Amino acid sequence: MGVEIQIEGLTKSFGKQLIWGDVTLTVPAGEICVMLGPSGTGKSVLLKTLIGLLKPDRGSVVIEGTDIATCSERELYEIRKLFGVLFQDGAMFGSMNLYDNVAFPLREHTKKSESEVRDIVMEKMELVGLVGAEDKLPGEISGGMRKRAGLARALVLDPEIVLFDEPDSGLDPVRTAFLNQLIVDLNAQIDATFLIVTHDINTARTVPDNIGLLYHRHLAMFGPREMLLSSEEPVVRQFLNAQRVGPIGMSEEKDADELAAEKDQELPPLPPIPLQLEPTNGQPRRSQRPPGDWCRANGVTPPPGSFEPAMSMTPGA
Ligand SMILES: Nc1ncnc2c1ncn2[C@@H]1O[C@H](COP(=O)(O)OP(=O)(O)OP(=O)(O)O)[C@@H](O)[C@H]1O
Q1: Which of 75, 151, 164, 203 has its CA 20 to 30 A from that of 196?
Q2: Considering all CA atoms of the chain, what is the largest pairwise distance in Å, rounded to the nearest integer?
Q3: Atom of ligand 1 at shortest distance to CA of 48?
Q4: What spacing in Å lies between the alpha carbon of 254 and ligand 1's midpoint?
Q5: Region Disordered: start and end of each range (predicted)?
Q6: Atom of ligand 1 nearest to the CA of 47
């Protein structure tokens, strides 16, 4: 079913460097969330904090009633079993074939027999479309296949929460489109809570139920996909539409002179909101809402052309 993650007042610094402060959001059970943010805003630090690899300075991360920011090592060990993580590079052991890589968590953390391990590994290989590649070494396969193998390994202990750290990094647009479809199909099948960190705007626009944006040491906004894609809030609008005009500059915030210089520049209209990617089998996911549902419920007029199939033919959709 997936479990909820309640994040409240979360603050993290390294020495004097504040990474983000007072981050509060609830990642809803079973839904797909994407976390965006310019480079260096601490998205990976957030993922590491959620699995207890980093301790926050303040705040709480409550999962099934346990605050992982303050719990004991033993409780943390139990909570971690709920997580599957797809690391950026797949984090495969280079000297092990894909079968042994995927089997690794089962052999480490369970007492399953080799025949049970085999059944589970093959089931996960099938889920990610890698049957037949079990004997390959990670170095012998493409980046896209490595991600799939990493995903099979992340799924092997049947996680309730799956964290994806830039699943599309280093992938071409076609491979990214296939991976996005796989993510949506998997969510439909295993019903776990998915949190994806990405830089890919097309992924953010078409895959998730909810989007968050980290910017300038805080969570600028978090909410339903349609809320952020129809938002006129300058940072959200600039980031989700990959524009140069707006408060975000080349390295961080623009200074007052830069902002004054673009004061009279007219912003292009918001592009139409694309349809959300649906599972291949046509069966809606449990958390999927009809197109335009959030806009209607909140009296928001979406940009013209929104939710029209032709308008949703963005690359990769
Ligand atoms: N263990 C650490 N010790 C000190 N500083 C760290 C540590 N881990 C991360 N940082 C700093 O935290 C900041 C945020 O890093 P992080 O990798 O989370 O950013 P990001 O948003 O994921 O970036 P990108 O999109 O480029 O991957 C960076 O300035 C980084 O140098």
Answers
A1: 75
A2: 68
A3: 18
A4: 21
A5: 255-317
A6: 18
